[in-house]
Amino acid sequence: MSQKAFKFRFYPTAEQESLLRRTLGCARLVYNKALSARTEAWYGEQKRVSYNDTSKMLTEWKREPDLYFLKEVSSVALQQGLRHLQGAFTNFWAGRAQYPNFKKKRNGGSAEFTKSAFKYVDGHVYVAKCAEALPMRWSRLLPPGADPSTITVKLSPAGRWTVSLLVDVDIEPLPESSNQVGIDLGISSLLTLSTGEKVANPKGFKAKFRKLRKSQKALSRKQKGSSNRHKARLRVARVHAEIADSRKDNLHKLTTRLVRENQTIAIEDLAVSNMVKNHKLAQAISDASWGELVRQLEYKSDWYGRTLVKVDRWFPSSKRCHCCGHVVDKLPLNIRDWVCPSCGTSHDRDVNAAINVLAGGLSVLACGASVRPDKH
């Protein structure tokens, strides 16, 4: 059994929107107050505050006259916010993430409901303290017998309401294939495959840059706190949503195709967070969304019984001749084609790298060790 989220748009009534906005606001307030308390306790007394401590704080906050409105919304959403904060601190202490940030109203928000705070009956979703079902647009059907374990209601900065239903499903592995492919990530070409195929980079940000720039300039002219500024901010958020939607759509189609066609997929283990520190390439790398591409390949390979292997980021895939194994000393980024000085083979830089990545990935699968620059 695997967990799969099904995301749908919904269009709440005026009463539902009022309740959901209050719920998101209260969840954001509790999260920020708990984060502030934990930060002050650490820097003031060198004391770590646990989830149980913040849960007790929430009980006390509900008794305060100024925070009586916390009782008007579902308590489950508030508790789940504290659990998410605990998860954020766990990731921070483990070195997987940065220190948690305060939530902001302009970013929309989300609220998670467990089974005690929602009902799923005959294709209708009811949340706590709401008598009517959410008016959802069912763009696809849930698996037969699906029973959501949690739902997450989200308001995007562009003003779109969505609900995600987390369901346990049985995903059948795809039939085995004899195909193997190595992938070299790039900017001019989003992907170069070891078969010689190059997948163009749609560059969604660049396509919408002029529209985004125009809307942002209009936003900068509006007076802070005015209704016109709020409308202009929504227009900017909608352009960003268009960019994100087109990027996700392209990545999902591409990764699904790769997983369906190949049994083994080899890819470089790139440190994207370090690469975007290069300000000349940061925008192009972020627009390509390499991290999201690899993430999708990981979980889809796990779902459908495929093998995804990551090759060490220091493996010289571009500088190594895939014919004779000769490694050149230097190969600047502006050189896209080169000739091996040892065997005289002419190489396309990206295709050669993809072939070497596939060879390195198969070596990792065979011997169970990473492929380092010193050839072991």
UniProtKB/TrEMBL annotation:
GO molecular function: DNA binding; metal ion binding
GO term, biological process aspect, one: transposition
InterPro entries found in the cross-reference section: Cas12f1-like_TNB, RNA-guided_DNA_endo/Transpos, Transposase, Transposase_put_HTH
Keyword field contains S-adenosyl-L-methionine: no
Entries under Pfam families matching the protein: Cas12f1-like_TNB, HTH_OrfB_IS605, OrfB_IS605
Domain Cas12f1-like TNB, first and last residues per copy: 290-357
Keywords: DNA recombination, DNA-binding, Metal-binding, Transposition, Zinc
Domain Probable transposase IS891/IS1136/IS1341: 167-278
Superkingdom in the source lineage: Bacteria
Transposase putative helix-turn-helix domain boundaries: 1-47
Family: In the N-terminal section; belongs to the transposase 2 family.
UniProt name for this protein: Transposase
